[in-house]
Structure formats: C-alpha cells, structure tokens
C-alpha cells in the first residue's frame, strides 16, 4: 500500500511539474502572449530568408487628427508593453503603429546581420505599405537608438523624434570590455526568471511593484521554450548590434524636431555587468546624459522626471503621457 502511495505521489508531482512548465513556457514568437490590439504581419525577405514583421495598426479612438505615432520598443520588450501609451495616444485622435522589430516579440527570429540601418529601412517600408507619409517616432531604450537612426536616414518621414530614456547616449565601445557574439550567447543562455527579475528590479525601476511581474513572466517564459537557443542567439546578435553601431556621434546631425523624455534615476549601461562598481558609477547617469545629449541636438527640448527610472511610460504613466501628448 505504501509503495502504491509513493508511486501515485510521484505521478502527481510529475504532473504538477509538467503543468507548471507548460504554464510558464512561452513560444519565442509569443503566440501565447495577448497583445492589446490585433496583430498583422509585413512580409520581408532578408539574406535568402522569407521572414515577417509583426505590428499593430491602431486607429484613433475618437475624432482622428490625421496624425500618426510609431512606437519603437526596447531590447527586452515587444509591442505588448506599450498598452497604456497606445490608449493615451488614440484617445487624443492619433493613429498608432506599433511594430515588433525583426528578432523581437511576435516577429521572426532569423539569423541575419542585424543593423539599425536595416531595421530602420523595414520600418520605413511598413509606413510606406500602410500609406503613411509621415509619423512622429517614439523610441524607448534600444528603440531610441533605432528611432535616431530612422530620423537620420528618413527625415522626410519623421514628423518628430521622441526619445524616452534611449540607450546610445554613450559609445559603449570606449569603456565596456569587448565580448564576442558567441560569448554573449552563452550569457543569454543562463537567463531565468530569477536573474531577469533581479535585473529589472535593479536597472529599470526605482520601486518594484507587483504589476511589473508580468514583464518578468514574458521575458522569462521564453527561456523555458525548446527554441530558446534561437532566441538567445538573436539576443546576442542584437547585443553586438548595439555595441558596434553607435549613434552617439551623430546626434548633432538630426534635422527634425526632437524631444527627450528622461527618467533621472535611470543608470542603464549596456554591458553593465562587465564593469566594476566604480566604473558603473561613472557611466549611465541619465540625469547628466540627458542634458548633455539635448545640448547637441539642434533645437531639442528636454523633459525630465524625478524619482523615475528607465521606463517612464510604465513607472509614471500619467505624468509621462501628459508630457508626451503635450510634446505632440
């Protein structure tokens, strides 16, 4: 009888573990992650591969003002984290375009040479395909580097450049030790829920709140996928893209109206773990970097937020969205 009970207990334990694994596992194209609006796909071709770029095309909620805003996500996110921003904009009459960049979110995860130039060109193709002549472009974190490259390449398509705590305010090559894509891949493979939560808590927010756990759930969910090595390889390739393709030296060349939105407590550094504590204290200080970069962009405006870290649109959504719609 005891033997049968032990076997039954093992079966139940295995079932619970399997169920938990299934619940916590997300595909690397986030099919089982609900986005706030319907997803569409732009077919693309790159380096002999047919791929696709997912996006949301959200019409104005009330009386349309005839203007469009395109939202470009950060490296560790996808279009899902723009939910409240989309609502704030559509309520003000804006059409909102929210792509998942190739290599991220619900888009394809191809092994290609990743470049901000190529991503910018694909975003232009998306706007052209949708018949949008010009858009205000809001980029957060890595999306800020991409938005900057987009504005430099396609000023005629850029009504305004809006940068929310972008990375790229420094040339990381000048102080971050070099790691190869293969080395970064090994680092990415070690990611799990605990390490992701610790990073988000220490790097993104001034005060951790329970609602931020959803961001961890999505980021950690893909690590349980059988296809996670592909996700990790793409993450390593885009880390190399950020490291090797700075926009730092070109801010003075921006020709479009620009507004910087800066959470002053942000201390984001790409490759921060490779630095000593003393080195970390010298770099990634957005309370200073925001002012420095704003002074280099012709006619740029700077909006700063106290007691806010890397993601103002999530940490202080009301204050951020008032500032954003005011800037537009």
UniProtKB/TrEMBL annotation:
The record, for InterPro entries, names: AB_hydrolase_1, AB_hydrolase_fold, AB_hydrolase_sf, Epox_hydrolase-like
| Signal peptide positions (record) | 1-20
**Keyword terms:** Hydrolase, Signal
> Any one cellular component term from GO for this entry?
membrane
Q: Which residues form the AB hydrolase-1 domain?
A: 68-315
Q: Which domain of life is it from?
A: Bacteria
Molecular function GO terms recorded: hydrolase activity
Name of the protein in its database record: Alpha/beta hydrolase
The organism named in the record is Pedobacter yulinensis
């Amino acid at each position: 009888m005891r033997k049968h009970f032990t076997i039954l207990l093992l079966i139940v334990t295995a079932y619970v573990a399997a169920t938990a694994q299934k619940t916590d596992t997300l595909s690397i194209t986030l099919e089982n992650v609900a986005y706030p609006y319907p997803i569409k796909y732009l077919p693309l071709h790159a380096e002999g591969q047919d791929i696709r770029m997912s996006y949301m095309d959200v019409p104005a909620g009330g009386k349309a003002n005839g203007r469009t805003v395109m939202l470009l996500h950060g490296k560790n996110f996808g279009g899902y984290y723009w939910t409240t921003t989309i609502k704030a904009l559509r309520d003000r009459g804006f059409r909102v375009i929210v792509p998942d960049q190739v290599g991220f979110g619900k888009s394809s995860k191809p092994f290609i040479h990743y470049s901000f130039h190529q991503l910018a060109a694909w975003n232009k193709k998306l706007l052209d395909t949708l018949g949008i002549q010009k858009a205000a472009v809001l980029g957060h974190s890595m999306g800020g580097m991409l938005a900057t490259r987009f504005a430099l390449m396609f000023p005629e398509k850029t009504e305004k450049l809006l940068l929310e705590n972008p990375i790229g305010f420094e040339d990381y090559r000048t102080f971050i030790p070099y790691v190869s894509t293969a080395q970064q891949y090994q680092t990415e493979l070690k990611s799990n829920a605990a390490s992701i939560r610790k990073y988000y808590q220490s790097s993104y927010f001034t005060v951790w709140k329970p609602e931020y756990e959803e961001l961890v759930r999505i980021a950690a969910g893909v690590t349980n996928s059988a296809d996670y090595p592909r996700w990790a390889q793409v993450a390593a390739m885009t880390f190399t893209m950020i490291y090797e393709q700075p926009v730092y030296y070109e801010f003075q060349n921006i020709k479009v109206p620009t507004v910087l939105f800066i959470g002053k407590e942000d201390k984001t550094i790409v490759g921060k773990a490779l630095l000593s504590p003393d080195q970390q204290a010298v770099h990634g200080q957005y309370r200073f970097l925001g002012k420095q970069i704003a002074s280099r962009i012709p006619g740029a405006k700077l909006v700063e937020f106290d007691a806010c870290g890397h993601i103002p649109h999530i940490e202080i959504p009301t204050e951020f969205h008032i500032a954003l719609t005011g800037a537009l």
